[in-house]
Structure formats: C-alpha cells, structure tokens
Write a structure and sequence with these properties.
- This protein has helices spanning 22-40, 63-74, 95-105, 116-124, 140-154, 170-179, 198-210, 223-227, 247-253, 261-264, 287-290, 297-315; strands at 3-4, 7-8, 52-57, 78-81, 108-112, 130-132, 161-165, 185-189, 217-220, 232-235, 272-275.
- The chain is α/β, with parallel strands linked by helices and 318 residues long.
- It folds into two domains: 2-138 and 302-315, 3-Layer(aba) Sandwich (Rossmann fold); 143-297, Rossmann fold, CATH 3.40.50.1370.
- 46% of the residues are buried.
- The mean pLDDT is 96.
- Bound molecules: phosphoric acid mono(formamide)ester (CP) and norvaline.
- Residues 134, 169-171, 236-237, 240-241, 276 line the site of norvaline.
Length: 318
C-alpha cells in the first residue's frame, strides 16, 4: 500500500470507487477545489514538468480525453495518445508485455475501454498509476468530479438526496460505489430490466454495514418516487457506448424515465439537474430542462478538467 500525502489508498490506481474510503474522496475533492481556484486566479503550475500521461481510448470521448490532456498540459506535463489500432495492441501483443514496456516510457496511463478486466490486467503489470477513464462497468473519474460539482452547488454532499433516473449503467454503478463511503442518500429510478448490477449494489451496502453506516442506497422502478424531494437529479443516455444497437428498444423501455419539467416538479424547488453528457435531447432529458435554470451540466463538464488535474497531481510520482 502506498501513502499519498498522508492518506492511504488501496493502491496507486483509480479503477473503481469501491476502493476509496471517505478520506480518499476528500483528498481528491479538496485538491481539485484548490487547483480550480489557482487556475481561475491565473497562477501557473508546472509540478508535472517532464512527466507523460499515456491515454488509450478504445471508445469515443470528447470531455474525458480532452480534459485529461488539458489537465496534463496545464500542470506542465505532456499527454500522449496511444491508439490501440496503431500499436501492437491491435496485433494481440499481451497486455503484460505492453504494460511492462509502457512502464519505462510514461508516468501514468488513462484507459477507456469495454471490459473492466482489461484495465485490471494493465494495473496488474503497472509500476505507474492506471486510471479508469470509463469501462462498461464504471466511470469513477466522472463521479469524482460530479461530487465536486455537487459540493460547489450545494455546499456539501452530506444528507442530500441524489436521484439517479434512467439506466443502471456504468455511471450509476460508480455513484453506488461512492455512496458506499459517503453519507448521501442515493435513490435510483430505473426500469426493472435496467436496474443496476445486483452484485455492485450488495457490495456497496455490505461495505456500509461493515462500517456501521446507515443504509442509503435505494432502487425503485418509479421515477417519481426516485426524484421525490431530491436535491440532485442525475441522468445519462439510455443506450451507452457498446449497446447502441438496442437504441430503439430502449427508447420504449425508458419512455417514462425522461427528466422533464413534470418530473423535476416533484423534487426540491432548488434541485440541480446533472448529466455527464453527451445528452440526447428529447430522450433521457428534455431540451428545456437541459438548458433550463436547474441544469448545471456545463459547470459539471468543466469540473472534469479540475478533477483530472487533482488526480494526476496526486497520483504521479515526482
Ligand atoms: N462524460 C464523459 O465521459 O464524456 P465523454 O464521453 O465525452 O468523455
Ligand atoms: N453511460 C455512458 C457514459 C458516457 C460518458 C456510456 O457509457 O456511453
């Protein structure tokens, strides 16, 4: 186990937020807030000068990839995009071999891919931090920066009701993992056939039990119950990357789960509406809610960059 700035983390990687305890969350959240302040004040920071971040992205990305690249450049380091198709990864060079070579060239590796197992395999052979930039199962860095946005807008995450509406997907799973350590209530409203993964739910709840923390994660198939009295409403696409072929079928299954004026009227008056983006207007969210006064999606997208700076600043060895 490595100690980062006095706080112990399971290891040097960010693979899954279930590995985090509350102190780990606070470490990243506080550092991101400080780095954002410093950036807004126009202060230069070159703490990662001479360091290189590798990025392997097997799925498309606008926000995550570019904000990680910008984060690295703003901290004085260099990002390098590693295309799976143009490297020997595409010719089945084993992950063990690829990673043991990358260890010699770069100082951290961010990966967006399909399988969580693929990232874990990289981590197994890595001497450098491996960062999950989204898999089919989790999107941990997204939820870390989202919690930063919640704190910015609401003062704290504690004792809030956070409603997830829609697909029990990778982003939802990372919210469940965060709820295992943090004291907010998470209520997920999803169609029955798209409830979050039951193992992920059970693991999160049993982690809370072990710490004698109250049960705070609930799942319902009624979107109105999920958002009732909520402080935060969060939604995401109905068909994530990799299941786009189910798009038409899912439009029918999720029809009652659109975040629109009628739904948000059941939440608190000052509810904030979040979406990790990209958004499909008229599907999971109505145009007027996405662009309306409750929406914080553009600040939310900005905070990804500040959080990614914190992640690189904390994890990269200097
Ligand atoms: N929110 C998010 O991860 O967006 P990208 O797919 O554009 O990276
Ligand atoms: N759940 C979405 C998130 C995109 C940022 C997906 O995996 O496509």
């Amino acid at each position: 186990m490595k100690i980062y700035n006095g706080v112990s983390m399971q290891d040097k990687n960010i693979l899954c937020l279930l590995d985090f305890d509350e102190a780990d969350f606070k470490l990243f959240l506080n550092r991101a807030v400080d780095l954002k302040k410093e950036f807004k004040a126009g202060k230069k920071n070159s703490t990662l000068s001479g360091k290189t971040l590798g990025l392997i992205f097997d799925k498309p990305s606008t926000r995550t990839r570019i904000s990680f690249e910008a984060a690295m450049i703003q901290l004085g380091g260099m990002p390098t995009f590693i295309s799976s198709t143009d490297t020997q990864i595409s010719r089945a060079e084993p992950v063990a071999d690829t990673m043991r070579v990358l260890n010699k060239y770069i100082d951290a590796l961010a990966i967006r891919t399909y399988s969580q197992k693929f990232i874990s395999e990289f981590a197994e052979y890595a001497d450098i931090p491996v960062i999950n930039a989204l898999t089919d199962l989790y999107h941990p860095c997204q939820v870390l920066s989202d919690i930063m946005t919640v704190i910015e807008k609401k003062g704290s995450y504690e004792n809030l009701k956070i409603a997830w509406v829609g697909d029990g997907n990778n982003v939802a799973n990372s919210w469940i993992n965060a709820a295992a350590s943090l004291d907010f209530e998470l209520c997920l409203g999803c169609p029955k056939q798209h409830f979050p993964n039951s193992d992920i739910l059970e693991n999160a709840l049993s982690k809370r039990k072990k710490q004698s923390k109250r049960e705070n994660i609930f799942v319902t198939k009624d979107p109105f119950e999920a958002v009732s009295n909520a402080d935060v409403i969060y939604t995401d696409v109905w068909a994530s990357m990799g299941v786009e072929n189910e798009g038409e079928k899912r439009k029918k299954e999720f029809a009652a789960f659109q975040v629109n004026s009628k739904l948000i009227a059941c939440a608190k008056k000052n509810v904030i509406v979040m979406h990790c983006l990209p958004a499909h207007r008229g599907e999971e969210i109505s145009e007027n809610v996405l662009e309306g006064r409750h929406s914080v999606v553009w600040d939310q997208a900005e905070n990804k960059m500040h959080m990614h700076k914190a992640i690189l600043d904390i994890l990269i060895d200097r």
